[in-house]
Give the backbone structure.
Amino acid sequence: MTAARRRAGRETLVAWLFLIPALLAFAYFKFLPMVEGIQLSFYKVNFGGQNTWVGWDNFRTVVNDPDFRAALVHTLINGVSVAVLSAVIALLVALALQGSRRSVFFVRSAIFLPAITSVAIVAEIFKLLYYPSATGPLNIVLGWFGVPAQPFFSSPDTALGSLVGMQVWKAVPYDAAIFIAGLATISKDLYEAAAIDGASRWHRFLNVTVPGLAPTFTIILTLAIIRGFRVFTEVYATTGGGPAGSTDVVMTRIYKLGFETFDYGLASAASTLMFIVTAVLTAIYLTWSRRKA
Amino acid sequence: MTVQTTRQATAPSRSTPRISWGRPLRWLVFALLLFVFVAPFWSVLMGALSSRALRSGELALVPNGLTLSNFAQAWKTSSPYFFNSVIVAAVALALQISVSTLAAYALARKRFVGAAVVSLLILTTLMLPEEVISIPLFLVMRDLPLVHLKLTDSLWGMILPVVGWAFSIFVLTEFMRDIPNELEEAARVDGAGDVVIFTRIILPLVRPALGTVTIFGFIMIWDQYLLPLIVTNNQKLYTLPVMLAQLRADELSIPNVFLATTFIALLPSMVVYYALQRYFSAGLLNGAVKG
């Protein structure tokens, strides 16, 4: 064995030693559960006995379950609305807050509060803001503009929209911070060239800023779509899926299947489906946006 | 959000088309933003400081008589949960950062057999929403294979699953790759081994990255909600964010006290964020990808 090869062997050994703690953590708490989850999808879990192999039955049950379908629709509506609304609003906020004035800096770090606050705490704050009587804080504000008092979380008609509003509020500051970083990467030569060509502010925005921010948009939307599918705490801590199932999402269904009716097999099948859908959508979106770019 | 970002943002922004509002309009926009994003937090604090009892669903922008008694009362009921949160966050964060720096050192500074496979495995976990594995995770934690430890109904069950986090491994790996090889080679010539190089050379040089993973790690851990729920039904073990809804129901008669509890629950994230704010931007885009 040459010295070089011995050295390479030693490098590999050292590398793996440094990696052991991380690999153990991933093996136990990510990969093992993932494999076990896929496996459980094909079983009916019996307590205190052998699990029964049921083939694709669990998947069939999930796909045909009207409650689950409704939850999937809510998840999609919620995810897409939150993704698009927060990206658009965040872009406007970013345009208003770029630059290095002291006041801008102050506002920028102050409005970041929602982004760092735990979802469960945001949920409690919004239950207060959304207090459904005419004297509720947000209803008072709406009253200034002549909008009648809203029931928010307490009516099936407005609950999902209210949930979207809460998530947009939490997502905008983070997205805006990313847009501000993105704006900073656009070369100013492009703006100068456009200005020399006589492009108006609006045209410069459309033809320089928007294409320049396209990669940032890709990142933000991908993030929002992935996050949209896994939405759980936002719903569970506010409406719990109600009223009348109007805000039930995939994850709250899975939680109920797993921890309220204890049907682990069915819940695992639903989880497996959700994982596949998320992965496929992410892949489609990434190829699509790459081809476009 | 940091000095760094601001500096980068300065130069091009001069020629970026900006809606040319006059000064009053600019202040109006700032006021609107502060009202929308900060006023809710402000009114939580003001309500918590008010001595006059608020009606349920009432918030105030100015306190109605000042008192700290709401905080005293809130602390009495919520402190056990606050300590659960602090223990979980402190231990989990320490483990998460240690494990991540070790792994990053291997990924960034070593050429070894299997490197590509390891990177791919870690990347996979980035794509896997932890919610999806919640049920099998619960089953695994009832009896950890091979070592036969029971992690359910214990704070360890809330700590260990968040220790492996691809985000912090990737952030640290990126930073460690940028360290010039000459430094490491010079140390090796002087007879330093990997442990010395790791602790004396690499770690001090990636201090900003440690700030970044601390702030993101803390926020991620404090945000855990489903994990405590699946780990235990024993409320005594719940963290404060998870316990909030319950406390709200208990304290329905005194909204001011609940507001104080809410403020106590959100204070640690604020402190960590504003203390380490300058390290934040380095993780911004990585954080965006993590999903």
